[in-house]
Write a structure and sequence with these properties.
The protein is α+β, with helices and mostly antiparallel strands. The protein has one domain. The protein is 31% helix and 45% strand. Strands 1-3-4-5-6-2 form a six-stranded antiparallel β-sheet. The protein is elongated, with a radius of gyration of 21 Å. The two termini are 34 Å apart.
């Protein structure tokens, strides 16, 4: 099965000026996990932090080693009428196979594989393109956010850095919950 969802160019063309604040913060994990649970973990964090989400890409592909899944989302939230935060969270799952695990004398069906997640955080200015129509507007907007609004911009940069680290640690804690799960090759005879 091969599923693919991709973004349209209209979203990219409507973006204002972006400044990267968090650049490629990586999280790697190998072991047992729940694919749907991981996605729900990220979605619930975004809801808790009043962020909206746009799914950029969702690809599933069967390989001889297991399933390959690529999931990329762009959560965002407005800070002012001129500025917003947005993140790019890219999740690559390699060699994903279904396995049986034992937890509290219960047999569970989970996935086993390798996960690589990359977190990027961006500060976007003039996200509605109000100040890009005329060269004079571009000049005024540049002065505004580089000099007059600089202390606010620095504060928003710190907040975005904190938010990106928070979601990173939230996902890390979720995945660490599965570190003690061990796949079983056969269920003990006393289980039945």
């Amino acid at each position: 099965m091969h599923t693919h969802i991709d973004i349209g160019w209209e979203f990219i063309l409507k973006m204002g000026e972006n400044k990267i604040i968090v650049d490629h913060q990586k999280l790697e994990y190998t072991g047992v996990f729940d694919v749907g649970g991981l996605m729900n973990c990220i979605d619930s964090w975004m809801i808790e932090h009043t962020m909206e989400k746009k799914t950029d890409k969702l690809v599933e592909q069967e390989t001889p080693q297991g399933k390959f899944i690529e999931w990329q989302i762009s959560p965002w939230t407005k800070m002012t009428d001129y500025m917003r935060y947005w993140m790019k969270i890219r999740t690559l799952m390699y060699n994903v196979k279904k396995v049986d695990v034992m937890k509290d004398d219960k047999k569970l069906k989970l996935s086993h594989g390798r996960i690589l997640m990359v977190f990027d955080g961006f500060l976007e200015f003039d996200y509605e393109n109000r100040w890009t129509e005329k060269p004079l507007h571009v000049f005024i907007a540049t002065l505004y956010h580089k000099f007059m609004y600089k202390s606010y911009t620095e504060k928003f940069e710190q907040e975005l850095t904190n938010l990106t680290h928070q979601i990173y640690h939230h996902v890390e804690q979720y995945l660490n919950m599965y570190r003690h799960y061990r796949p079983v090759t056969r269920v003990p005879h006393w289980y039945y």
